[in-house]
Amino acid sequence: MRQIEIEWVQPGITVTADLNEERNPRLADLLWNELLPYNSLQNHALVSGNHLYHLVPHHQLVYTRAEYKEDRTKSPDGTVFLSQLQHLAVKYGPLSEYLPAAPVGHVVPEDVEALRAAGRACWEAAWSSKQVIEVRVRRKGEDVRNFVLPRTAPVDSPAVQKLVEEIHDEVARVWIDPPQEIVAMHEGRIASRAGSYDQYFSTLVFLNGEVRPLGYSALNGLVTMSRTTDISLTDLLRITPMLIKTPAEFLGYTGLNTLWDFTQRVLETLPGVETRDEYFALINALALYANVLNTWNLHFFPWRAGADHAYATV
């Protein structure tokens, strides 16, 4: 039986999970052979219920299809899932989201209570304290102290490679440490003063509404198409600006200047791209950057406003 450890550094909680080798062998093998070990910023679900998830820094997860999915509301506590949203997720209590998910393992029974404690700590961090919680995932028994953000294979174009490396370095810089642009936005330090009638709460709402689909849908979708379809490079180059320019430009106005700068430079570089590998390297780098910005925004968003919108007691 292959086992992994999931460690939440700041609460000081580690659990062991058995990998399921039967229902999703392709995903289980991917996790074991390609993805581990890694670290990430831990997020807590904000809609589905008692659920933890985090961004996995490997592009293969975006386009590797599951062989089996199930209604996660019926999955036992401790079930570990992998998602094409580039997430590893763990259920630790009741869920309302019945959308199908791909299980790859289960926290061992003796660690489920520790998992629930980790879940409560992560909810407190998301809801109010804003404590940064680092999660580390590794094979059981491995002694991993230094985590390095993986790089994509180098490409022949010097211009493309230079930009990919620059974006990668920025992703590595903010992988566990908060991006100052996100911090500034959540403190109301926005140069454009975006937000009608001199308030910035609505700007934070729109930030969340734009950066999430830019990464998850537009950029990850382009990554998937470049790796799993026969769509031509010409067509990929044609549709890319249509999908990413407008949201990235808006996000630049609201304060994410680095994202908008990278997006403009990617769009300026695309006409000189000659291979699918060059295209993939560029779009994958920008996708991971957009997605890590999303994780930080979800962490810092003032979710305590939800206290004013509690469901009526039945």
Automatic annotation (TrEMBL):
InterPro entries the UniProt entry points to: Cucumopine_C
Domain named Cucumopine synthase C-terminal helical bundle: residues: 160-300
Protein name, as recorded: Cucumopine synthase C-terminal helical bundle domain-containing protein
Lineage: Bacteria, Bacillati, Actinomycetota, Actinomycetes, Pseudonocardiales
A Pfam family matched in the record: Cucumopine_C
Organism annotation: Actinoalloteichus caeruleus DSM 43889
